[in-house]
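User: Reviewer 2 asked us to show a designed sequence for the structure in our supplementary figure. I'm pasting the structure tokens here. Could you produce the per-position amino acids so we can include them in the response letter?
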């Protein structure tokens, strides 16, 4: 089996679309938010996606159809931090390819890396076909900087958000 994994709102639907565009075995790829502790079969192939964790929080708030204000952003942090923490184990797995959401949208070489990992060649215009038309697509990329302020930043630091950024190699401050 071929799995696309990641914490909620990290871009798993975009990654699934990328896998489906390969055709063949890519069409059978399974979308999963299961964390690293889930009992996976050794022979399964996995592509894991990460995203700037601050953008994950904002995207979660938007997905939940909540107002993007200090209260809802801060209130969503614990859930997102817990979910992202559950996926850190994937970063250490040699048999798992981890891609960044931001690079999947901007760097065509990421498609090539995915193809090598799953043993398939991309189709024509693969990279150009990624944008839009996924289950959670809104035509509006999240930008945490539009919503982050001193109060939100203080809560992020107090809840351990900076440690998550460091583990994922996202440096925002």
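Assistant: Here is a per-position design you can include in the supplement:
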């Amino acid at each position: 089996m071929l799995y696309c994994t990641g914490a909620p709102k990290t871009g798993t639907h975009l990654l699934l679309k990328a896998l489906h565009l390969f055709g063949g075995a890519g069409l059978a790829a399974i979308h999963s938010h299961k964390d690293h502790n889930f009992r996976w079969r050794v022979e399964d192939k996995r592509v894991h996606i990460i995203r700037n964790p601050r953008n994950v929080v904002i995207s979660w708030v938007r997905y939940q159809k909540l107002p993007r204000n200090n209260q809802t952003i801060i209130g969503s942090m614990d859930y997102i931090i817990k979910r992202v923490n559950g996926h850190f184990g994937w970063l250490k797995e040699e048999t798992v390819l981890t891609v960044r959401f931001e690079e999947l949208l901007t760097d065509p070489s990421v498609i090539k890396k995915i193809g090598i990992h799953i043993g398939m060649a991309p189709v024509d215009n693969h990279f150009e076909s990624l944008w839009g038309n996924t289950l959670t697509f809104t035509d509006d990329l999240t930008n945490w900087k539009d919503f982050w302020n001193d109060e939100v930043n203080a809560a992020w630091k107090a809840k351990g958000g900076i440690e998550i950024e460091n583990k994922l190699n996202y440096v925002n401050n």
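For the response letter, you might also mention the following. The helical segments are 12-21, 53-63, 70-85, 101-106, 109-118, 150-158, 161-168. The radius of gyration is 16 Å.
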